[in-house]
# Entry
Amino acid sequence: MSCEQPNQPRAAWSAEDLRGNPHAALDKAHRVESMFASIAGRYDLNNRVHSFWQDQAWRRRAAMLARIGPEDDVLDMACGTGDLSEMLARCRPRSVLGMDFTEAMLEIAQRKIGRKARSNGVPTPTFRWGDAMEIDLPDGSMDVVTIAFGLRNISSPQAAVGEFARILRPGGRLVVLEFSTPRNPIVRLLNAVYTQYIMPVTATLLSGDRSGAYRYLPRSVSTFADPAALAEMIAAGGLTVQQQVRQSLGICTITVATR
# Structure
């Protein structure tokens, strides 16, 4: 008699998958979508707990660096559950559009926005499915594009940067918030121990995740472009990098570029 459970879903990321570079997986897009669908329900809670409630401060800083004006149209790509989209809306642009590749995340974002009170001049973000490598928007249709902790999850980050440049108007801004490796050797060691050995266990327990999402996270960071390489990628996409601002001793970095 077989003890197999054929209906049990396969993990998006196995230990074997993560011995190599997860960004090289040919089916990376499918794996990432499956992973985020699996953790959507506890995504916000895990973000708060495992960043020690700093993730919202990082997003607020990114929104501030976008220098949003009242006539700006803003795209928040890989918007997830909409936290950055809401912060961008509170900067009072003309409009905020959140796009994401995972429907489960968008459903949560829509519910959260529906519970928010609106003051005068604060637009209600709209949300819809979108692929960063083929953005369904006209050329020169946005003044600001933001992406927080999402660029490394895209199959071709370079293609996404090219799309960001395409849809930005002249003078438009791209703001990328992404994890990075601290420069200080002590901070770097402590961060590595936390992200590689502690966080994967506690986040998996908190979320009840079976997709391997929180084993993928540290591996996806360590194998992705560092801030200098990211700046080169953005420049190759046709944008001019204006500044890179490290947050929390270099745990993450905000890169600002213009068209």
In short: The chain has one domain: 17-258. The mean pLDDT is 93. The chain is about 40% helix and 20% strand.
